[in-house]
Every structure is written in structure tokens, then in C-alpha cells.
Amino acid sequence: MIDPRKTIYTLVCTLFLSFASSLYAQHISPLEGRWDLEMDFMGKTSPSWLEIKHSGNATLLGRFVFAFGSARPIAEVETYGENKFTFSIPNQWEPKGSDMIFHGELDGGKLKGTMIYTDGSIINWTGVKAPDLAYTENPKWGKTIEVFNGKDLTGWHVDGEKNQWVVKDGILTSPESGSNLITDEKFQDFKVHVEFRYPEGSNSGVYLRGRYEVQIVDSEGLEPADIYLGGVYGFLEPNQNASKPAGEWQTYDITLIGRRVTVTLNGKTVISDATIPGITGGALDSKEGEPGPFMIQGDHGPIEYRAFEVTPLKN
């Protein structure tokens, strides 16, 4: 015999879920999502990134990554007109001045707009939806490539005028601040093994596909954070501080498939199969759907590398 109370309960639950789903759908804005931006900044195209999301009611908020610095929270994205929006961001590493003020609109599935910089200058920018990056279950790996041969800079190039990188006694060294070092070859999905050493107080980083910085910085004894050793800068925090003291050799073993990354520092898995939302500050470009090179940060402090081995995903 059918219990009428259960029937009424099921009907009420169904109607409530249907109403809640309809209400949520009404609040979804076409602006929501992650966007890869290109900004006309200081005479060149600077990659940036924007996320706009729903906060539980009609309010939109988000995060923004500029040409440098970490992901910055957006307290509120105000909308007006038809798919137009504005928000402001306090300066981080920019010159002191006013907040940066954004105006944008969605046009034909793409974003476009302007940013008023801290000095009052106006910067034009465009944006496209960040792509979905396929994840391969049970990956099969190809042959390991030693992208640093232990002898010279074959297979690498610098991104600036000053090349301070030298190879001595099998060690790749940046003795002082200068240019970043970039592989000639580009990769999509891979495992990478890196051995590095830095002096006290120094700072470097390894950019995966030239877009996602895994931080290298003297941070022994500090609370885990995305801006310290083991973190994906500004986005993913390590579950523990596995740093060794400055002056000791340390290792990274990193797997990146699609957007999912696993970071092992000195034999301890500090980030496990986590999603990288978007590019980090200092990225070479914002073309997330394309393969990219490795980039070693050399514009901060002294750093040494004695191994850099890449195992690409087998096609």
C-alpha cells in the first residue's frame, strides 16, 4: 500500500528542487566563468586572467591576475546595461596611485574593455573563455628528455637583453638577477623532475607551459602558503612545508595533465591532483589551450639547477 505521506513529501521535495534550480538559473550571468585576457600594457601584449562567479545571490565576485603579482580577489563585479560590468582592484606591485578600475562588456561571446591604471593611463584589453583542458586517465608516458644537458644552454633561450645564465661544473646558474630562461621546446602534458638550490633569502620559480608558476623561494619553517616553496603561486597552497634549509639541494617532481597538477617536494606530495584555475602572474602568454615551454625565473635572485628532466605524455 502506498503511503500518502511519502508521496506528498516526495512531491514537495521535487517542487522545491525544481524551484531552487530555476531560481539559480535566473541568477546565472553570461559573464560568469574564467577568461584568458590580453592587455595592451607598456607597448606590448601582457597576459592576464579574470574569473567571475556567483556568490549565492544576485552578487558577482571574482579574482584577477595581472601581468605580475598573485591572484587578487574582486569584492564585487557590478553589472549595468546589457552584459556590461565594472570593478576595481587595489594596486599590489604597481606604482602607487589610484585603484585600477575596469570597464568591460560581453560582445559575441568575447570580453573587451578598458582598465584605468594606477597612474591614470587607459589600457585596452580583450578576453576569451578559458578552454577546458582534457585530462587523461591512466596516462602512458613517453621517453624522458634531459632539457638541461649539463654542459651548456643548448635548447634554451632568454627572454631579455641580459643573459646572466652560465653552466659551470654541470650546474646551471643564475648568479644575479637578470633574464628568465625558456626552453625552445614546448610541451602539453608531462612529468618533470627538477633539482635546484638557492642561497638564503633568494627567489625563483618554474613556469609550467610558461603559464603556471610553481614557486621556489627560501621559506623553511614558515606556514604553508601558495606564495612559498611548494605552492602554485597565488592559487594552490601546499599541505605542508617540506622545504629544506637554504644552501641544500632540493627536488621537485611535478605532473601536469590538463589543468590537474601534482607537486612532490623533496619526496613529499604537497599538492595532489589539484586544478590550476588559470595563469599566474609573470606568465609568457594566456593561450591556455596551446602547448608551452618551461620557463625558469631568473629576474629575482640567485638560483642553481643541476637537473631538469621532462617526460611527456605519450600520444
UniProtKB/TrEMBL annotation:
<dbReference type="InterPro" id="IPR010496">
    <property type="entry name" value="AL/BT2_dom"/>
</dbReference>
<feature type="domain" description="3-keto-alpha-glucoside-1,2-lyase/3-keto-2-hydroxy-glucal hydratase">
    <location>
        <begin position="145"/>
        <end position="310"/>
    </location>
</feature>
<feature type="signal peptide">
    <location>
        <begin position="1"/>
        <end position="25"/>
    </location>
</feature>
<keyword id="KW-0732">Signal</keyword>
<dbReference type="Pfam" id="PF06439">
    <property type="entry name" value="3keto-disac_hyd"/>
</dbReference>
<dbReference type="GO" id="GO:0016787">
    <property type="term" value="F:hydrolase activity"/>
</dbReference>
<protein>
    <submittedName>
        <fullName>DUF1080 domain-containing protein</fullName>
    </submittedName>
</protein>
